[in-house]
Amino acid sequence: MIGGRGMCHRRSAPMRSRRQEVTLVVQEMHFETIAAIATPPGEGAIGIVRISGPEALSVAERVVRSKRRLSDVPSHTLVYGKVVDEHERILDDVLVGVMRAPRTYTGEDLIEINCHGGPVILQRVLERVLQAGARLAQPGEFTKRAFLNGKMDLAQAEAVIDMVRAKSPKGLEIAALQLEGKLSEVVRTQREAILDLLTHIQAVIDYPEEGLVDIAPEEVGARLAEISKELQRLLAGADAGRIYREGIRVAIVGKPNVGKSSLLNAILQEDRAIVTPIAGTTRDLIEERALLGGIPFTLTDTAGIRVTDDPVEMIGVERTRKAIEGADLIFLVVSGAEPLDSDDEAVIQQVREAGAAARVLVVVNKADLPPALDREGLAKAAGEWPCVWVSAVTGMGLDHLEELASKEVLGEAGAQDAILLTRARHKAALEEALAALKEAQATITEGLPLDLVSVDLQAALEALGQVTGESVSEEVVARIFAQFCVGK
Fold this sequence. Notes:
Distance between the termini: 50 Å
Largest sheet: 7 strands, mixed
Strand order of the largest sheet: 3-4-5-6-2-1-7
Shape: flat
CATH topology of one domain: Rossmann fold
Radius of gyration: 30 Å
CATH class of one domain: Alpha Beta
Helix content: 40-55%
Number of strands: 13
CATH superfamily of one domain: P-loop containing nucleotide triphosphate hydrolases
């Protein structure tokens, strides 16, 4: 066993950064000038065609006519001009932003042609730019070049798309912090701590004749424990970060006529679902999005669960069951104006069976009516599920429902004022690093030689490097930037 780990140590000498390898692989790409429309489809006041690369200025000069040559103006200058077609006919009046490397988003010469925001004119201007020597950019290629040119690390690059797709103010705030480099700063600090420890251990092992000061196993263990504690703190916020980024799916379920559709309308503050006193009005699923406690929720109003011979209603009930299975949180609605009956009990049983992985809130609706529900019987049926009384008609208790729903999905992580992980890739990398540090601590506890610790420290370094991109593969980089839109 010791021989095996020792051999691993020999093979695990410090290696060249994977980021450098990725840069070398795609180096030829840097000699190409790319272009794309950088604004969303549709009509708008302004639309932007973005050009990046070594020939960005000369490409722009071939299609823009202005009093000042673009290549002569200082960096970060706006120049008024006209885009012309191949026959020198004016296509549009434009403002051209000239930004020179390296002080640009991509780290290359960057041109932004600000046109009128119609889809036809933008497409024509892009066609002219492509005719002038640029090629169409791939999805995310501008940000990919920013990463490869050292303008941002991989975690920051991922934060760019998170900002674009943010579903809530909190999600935007988390993405902004990551784009600023807060997550990367913490990861790099711990990576440096591991690297310092690894360097010290290897120096003592490889150069014993130099008389370097040895390092006690107890000190190594203490430093590893400190690093592990910081990584655990980051991991504690992973679920909350994912929730703010991706949102939560909520299934509103219950027997017919307990007020599920009324509850949806009350939460949305609009008449989205049809409400009638006729049981079985809701036959199909209705999905709407809402912010509750700053968290993006996708609310699904479902058909009432009951035994029925109506073939259409039966389809609705089956879809309800599938909605329960796919939900992160379930609002199990009962009526406070009538006793629990066998239909309520059937719903509760269905939720326990199909929604085992979901959290459940029991929502007692119609709290504005004279109460007829046995609270003790409800508590016994609900078991560990929290209960909240509301009125979809008057709005009573809806604030409490929102607060409980937020706490239920966030748990303790929601109270932390910390950097939150938002991506499964980051979580997996930190867990891998933490596992490697645990192995290193076990090696120390077993009294094995410290040179064996270096194997696990190298693995931890590799794992943490996956977050920021120092040790990421070309395949992972390609997969990340494929998520971006063209033009970003």
